[in-house]
Amino acid sequence: MNNLDYGWLGKLNWDSLVFSGFLERPSVSEAVASVAGSIVILATVGILFLLTWFKVWGTLWRDWLTSTDHKRIGIMYIAFAIVMLVRGLLEGMVMRAQQAAAPEGFLYADHFAQLFSTHGTIMVFFVAVPFLVGLINFAMPLQIGARDVAFPVLNQISLAVTVSSGILLMVSLVVGQFSTGGWSAYPPYTGADFSPGVGPDYWIWAIVFSGAGTTLTGINFTVTVYKCRGPGMHLFRMPLFCWTVLCASILMIFAMPPLSVAALMLGLDRYLDFHFFTNDLGGNMMNYANLFWLFGHPEVYLLVLPAYGIFSEVFSTYSAKTLYGYKSLVIATMCIAILSFTVWLHHFFTMGQSPTINIAFGIATMLIAVPTGVKVYDWMATMYRGRIRFTTPMVYAIGFLILFVIGGLSGVILANPTVDFQVHNTLFLVAHFHNVLIPGVLFGILAGYNYWFPKAFGFRLNDKWGKRSAYLWFAGFMVTFFPLYGAGLLGMPRRSFSYADLTFKPYMIVAFIGAMIVLAALISLVIQFIVSIRDRKKTQVPVGDPWDGRSLEWNSPAPVPAYNFVEIPKVTDRDAFTEAKEHGEAYKRPKVYRDIELPKNNPLGFILCVVSGILMFALVWYIWWLALISALTILVAVIAATFRKETEYIIPASQLEKDTEAWLALVEKSEAVSRDLEDSPRNVGLAKLEI
Amino acid sequence: MNPVSSPKSPGSINPHEAIHRDPDMVIFGFWVFMMSDLIFFGVVFAIYITMVGATAGGPGPKELFDFGSLFAQTMLLLTSSLTAGIATVIVKHERSRAAFLFWVVITLLLGMGFLALELYDFAGMAEKGGVPQRSGYLSAFFGLVPLHGLHVTFGCLWMIVLIVQVFTMGLGDVVKLRFLRLALFWHFLDLIWIGIFSVVYFGGWVYG
Asked: C or N terminus of chain A, fewer CB within 10 Å?
């Protein structure tokens, strides 16, 4: 128990800085680490400088950092996720370069281990989850005809702890080292005996705090879907995206606690010398494996379900057809959500449980392919005889359909315990999960980004660069990961920084080339963003319905005003907005203008973001006094927030009338464009009614 | 905002308040939170059950548990649930603020009494070598029981804040709703305690 005896700066000293490693023993590996650290520092300084230069601190504070508006919170989630995506991708590149260069290589084993640990942690917890939560935050309340999410300040807090955990991961690039134990951080390796450094502590606190944020988000979304639907929006009239959000949120509520428990128990082992998962004194590592995957498997579906929802919207909108087999899609979604809890043991078929148990879990795993298959056929049937437009989101959706099925099939192969014994811990597995997560989640995210962007910012993204990026993603993904199936079948273990058998080398070189194509895809995405901003005058869609949308979120100006709808639309059927357009109910003047009450700005989220970041840092480095002060500050800030009396402000009817009349006048004088012209400058967001 | 207007139908205080303080929604949200918390406890219980035998030669349940003190703790907590219930009834029937405060303070004192006894128990266990560092079994014990204690501590803190708020903000709808959630939380903790008593203490004593 000498864990507690440290100076007032805890374990922190000069050698903790990443640069000291390079100065003391210069090498390529240390240079890579130092460059990464420098990028973090320079980017931070650069951003702070630019914000000051353009004098945007005031706007940033009022409109964003203290905002309780679900749309803005959603956009902040997405901005955060994109930053993390860049880091995660670059780490993937470095790893592929290392394996292409192996056996000589250029990284230390430890450095490589840190790369795969952060890559996994970041991509799952800080890219996929926040990106999806951001899209959900933005679109779901609009789709169900709600003014806001159920608990706006809670929403802010969820964002705050997610972002501060992400910042902690960025700090780990500069100060100290991250865990080398993989994204699943299995003890006893990550315990104090084998990993005495700060790495696992970085992992633990980032997971605990961001996990708490995700749980709270799940609660918020669930209550929003159940309680905040507009009049007539029955559950079975909700857009499919909202159904997938509901199921994913329920997964968040039930699946995140096991992860928090696992991480906290690992923390108790490390900090206070408990024996949950240690090798000695009755600790039991299998408990960790069970807890982690009790979370980890539902997590996969928590990610992929909302993406399915996005694809459902995309297929339906760009085929100009109502979604085929709506009810079967809903039921399939629910089946997947339930089955996701019954399969976690397939992550450790080889760890010694009985064949009977393995078979049961193998069958349960294969069963998930059934509802997923239902979905695939429904999506194809939605396109059948539709008026398909080949827009960027549709390209992503079709790419997903083809590539995801391949990934799913390799999953069915792995679900067979006897096969799993052969390919366990090889690159075959790595190929499989990238094959489901990249088409399934990343393509969904990018489709959603292209689909809803005009709604959020009032102008469309460049379609040409969007498609280029999509095709580069497809190509890059295939060239990178399909060779890994081969290398895995030949027996190449995953997570190896080097290898002796040169048979693997050609595969690794091809994979590296693929990684370069992925990099090109990322660059195209950035170019798309810049080009779109440059051309935004020509692509504005202020009326708000650029794609001939079918659900309620398109029934408002773009960008959407803080109050979402001046009058909550009444819903009579599925595809509520299409229905309204057909019956001439869209773009109608409300009978009376009534005041709208909205939650006021609140600094609580920002305060918690800063203080929880400090708390986590202090805990990682054993700076007890700082940890105590920041924990108390959090407590005081939360209690103080409950004493606020005026928590809402009112948008007066006169303001609403002015805004709405201006919008309606714009509708009046805009030209309705047909679907063929939706990518031309003539599209100002008023779709022509073509049934 | 007028905290005491139209108390009989708290959902219709004024026409545009329905969105964020709809009591139905707030309470439902809290139930959902408790479901999540229940899973949290559930997995910690599961860990305890798998580790009952993992005493690694250290003291086990039979050496460590003091059922006299446990009985007292149980009585204190169950009684506090009753007093919280009485306070809920007072809120519902709009009785006096003083009576409400009286029963909340009693609940608080009972809760703090429970915590004091629990800490005394832990100290007694430590004297017999029952510290979490000793074995996997004791780690699991100290992962679970103090987790409940921590919840009780937060409940007590919550009560103190509410008592202050009754004075500063009045016993209005906001404070009432907060109290109703606290009462739910408190009953929930009672339920968890019954689980702890049966599984951890009694079950541990029988099977340990």
From this structure: C
How many C-beta neighbours within 10 Å does residue A600 have? Answer: 15
Taking the C-alpha atoms of residue A443 and residue A435, their distance in angstroms, rounded to an integer, is 11
Identity of residue A54: F
Query: Three-class SS of residue A459?
Result: strand
How far is B26 from B59, CA to CA, in rounded Å? Answer: 45
Token couple for A250: 């329920």
Of B20, B136, B165, the CB nearest to A275: B136
Using alpha carbons only, what angle is made at residue B104 by residues B100 and B105, rounded to the nearest 5 degrees? 115
Q: How far is CA B173 from CA A638, B25, B88, in A?
A: 20, 14, 13
Chain-centre distance for alpha carbon A341: 20
Model confidence at B21: pLDDT above 70: no
Contact check, Cβ <8 Å, A281/B178: no
Q: What is the ipTM of this complex?
A: 0.93
Closest CA to A582 of A688, A470, A679, A489: A688
- Mean pLDDT across A356-367: 95
Cα-to-chain-centroid distance, residue B86: 16
Residue A2 has pLDDT above 60, yes or no: no
**Contact (CB<8Å) B19/A280:** no
Note the pLDDT of residue A7.
Answer: 81
pTM over 0.90: yes
Contacts of A570 by beta carbon, 8 Å cutoff, 6+ apart:
A230, A231, A232
- The answer on pLDDT for A471 being more than 70 is yes
Chain A residue whose CA is closest to B40: A257
Q: Are A578 and A129 in contact (CB under 8 A)?
A: no
Q: How far apart are CA A597 and CA A578, in angstroms?
A: 28
> What are the C-alpha distances in Å from A612 to residues A66, A640, B57, B83?
16, 16, 40, 36
B58 contacts on A by Cβ (under 8 Å): 281
Helix, strand, coil percentages (3-state) for chain B, rounded to 5, are 80, 0, 20
Collapse the DSSP code of A58 into the 3-class scheme (helix H, G, I; strand E, B; otherwise coil) and give the result. helix
| A226-266 pLDDT, tens digit each | 999 999 999 999 999 999 999 999 999 999 999 999 999 99
Beta strand ranges found along A194-280 (DSSP E)? none
Instruction: Identify the DSSP state of A553.
Output: G
Q: Which of A577, A530, A650, A617 is nearest to A209 (CA)?
A: A617
Query: Per the CB < 8 Å rule, is B32 touching A222?
Result: yes
Residue A417: closest CA among A336, A482, A358? A358
Q: Which of A275, A293, A568 best tests the B interface by mutation, with the highest count of B CBs <10 A?
A: A275
**Residue A395 in contact with residue A309, Cβ under 8 Å?**
no
Distance CA(A442)–CA(A437), nearest Å, equals 7
**How much is the pLDDT for A13?**
87
Backbone angles phi, psi at A459, to 5 degrees: -145, 155
Tell me the Ramachandran region of residue A589: left when phi exceeds 0, alpha when psi lies from -120 to 50, beta otherwise: beta
Q: B40: which chain A residues are within 8 Å (Cβ-Cβ)?
A: 257, 260-261
In whole angstroms, give the CA distance from residue B31 to residue B22.
15
**Dihedral angle computed from the Cα positions of residues A478, A481, A483 and A487, in that order, rounded to the nearest 10 degrees:** -170
Residues of A in contact with B141 (CB under 8 A): none
Query: What average pLDDT does the structure give for chain A?
Result: 94
**Closest residue of chain A to B43, computed from CA coordinates:** A258
Q: Tell me if A258 and B29 make a contact (CB, 8 A cut-off).
A: no
In this prediction, residue A470 has a pLDDT band, given cuts at 50, 70 and 90, of: very high
Q: Which of A249, A241, A379 is nearest to A310 (CA)?
A: A241
Strand (E) or helix (H) holding B110: helix B97-127
